[in-house]
Amino acid sequence: MSHQLSNDKQSVAETNLDCENWIVGDDGTGATYYPPETELPADPYRLYRFLTDLEDVLLTIPDDQDRLKAIMPLVRNLLTSSYWLQMEYDQPSPKTGWSVKTLYREPEYPLTVQMVAWKPGTSSPIHNHGTWGIVALIDGTEKNRFWKRSPTAEFPDKLELVGEQILQPGEIIGFTPGAIHSVESVGDEPTISFNIYGETNYPQRYQFDLVKHTAKNF
User: To 5 degrees, how large is the angle CA 3–CA 5–CA 7?
Assistant: First the structure.
């Protein structure tokens, strides 16, 4: 289902070059990242061009943090140039409170591109992704909480809260494979985001229980 953005929401894409980027590491600490200034492509930066450039990054840059730094400007160029992508989402499910619409996935290609929507007040479990990931907020307000492992002899999967970050439309956050976080849609409007993930190492992807101090594959 496609959706019409208001003029105010379209202006977010037009001005999001001034919005901030964050990179969160495996220890839950985050830092603002300011990429080198680049000019927008003269022609529309279409999805197929983005995927080609992204594949070049994956083939030439092995380090996950360096990959995130190289991919973030590509994501910003894509969302600034391609309004249609910002309208390609499904309404959150009344039953689960969220929806995922896959925009691109191909066998043997280590990448998934999605649009994700959260109903206001909906929260995710605490989890990591087992791969690098980038989330660009399109609409709404999203609170991210960041955690790190704080093991004890009794509870080897115990977590410690490190911090949190409120994301506004136009802002981008990147995660290394072991980064642990949870998200909550805050405010009165659904949260809409453009998400890309690398090839997930599923044995290393976990969902965490804060009460029981346990982790299970997610």
Answer: 160
